[in-house]
Amino acid sequence: MSGLNETVHDPKADDGIWDLPQTSVQSVNPSRVLDWGSLFGKWNFTRTTADTNGAYLEAHVLAPATDGPPLHVHYHAEESYQVLSGTLEVRLGEEWKQVSSGQTLTVPRGTPHTLRNSAPVELINVHRPALDIEQMFRTLHCLVTEHRVGLPPKDFRSAVLVGMLFTKYERENTTAQPPVVVLRGLALIGSLLRFKLPQ
Predict the structure, then answer these.
(1) 47 and 66 co-located in one domain
(2) Total domain count for the chain?
């Protein structure tokens, strides 16, 4: 089952992806926005974990061209991508699928996946149930924007902190590449060195 479905949507022109109405991301509560700059773009939590009592987390995403995150698995939640503008490529297991404007792809729980896009894309991303994925995203954002942790990590400190983060939130997001045992080892080193994740 591919999880790829057509949805009813009036697609915007791809070349106007960044020309969104002022009511889009700019006018929302700043506490709901994670601005990653050129790394991952801008995420607006349109339905937070608290809003849905943990049923799901929904984010409106404006993403630049990116190679995406490492291959990973959500063993206890499904994830979906509803593309509003542009084209998203999603890897499910060994197969890459294109998700175009007006389409939605759902990644079943337990399925290794990642994503990439060669041009800017606008989408709605949902994790169901939310678990603690919102807090994981917020902590990662803090590491990147306030603690200068590089993604992908290129120095010892960044590698250790990322290992600690992904080990803490392994229930929400388990990496397939690099193997989870590598991140657990880095987390152990961080613990021995008394490294701390931001609260």
Answers:
(1) yes
(2) 2
Q: What is the pLDDT of residues 13-68, one digit of tens each?
A: 333 334 433 334 445 689 999 999 999 999 999 999 999 999 999 999 999 999 99
Do 119 and 149 belong together in one domain?
no
CA dist., res. 132 & res. 140, Å (int): 12
User: Do 80 and 147 fall within a single domain?
Assistant: no
For every residue of 63-123, DSSP letters joined together read E-SB--SPSEE-SS-EEEEEEEESEEEEEETTEEEEEETTEEEEE-TT--EEEEBSS-EEE
Tell whether pTM > 0.70.
yes
The amino acid that residue 78 corresponds to is E
Considering all CA atoms of the chain, what is the largest pairwise distance in Å, rounded to the nearest integer?
Answer: 53
Assign residue 101 the CATH number of its domain: 2.60.120.10
Beta-ladder partners of 4:
105
What domain range includes position 142? 134-192
Best CA proximity match to 156, nearest among 120, 131, 186, 135? 186
Asked if residue 182 and residue 100 are part of one domain, the reply reads no
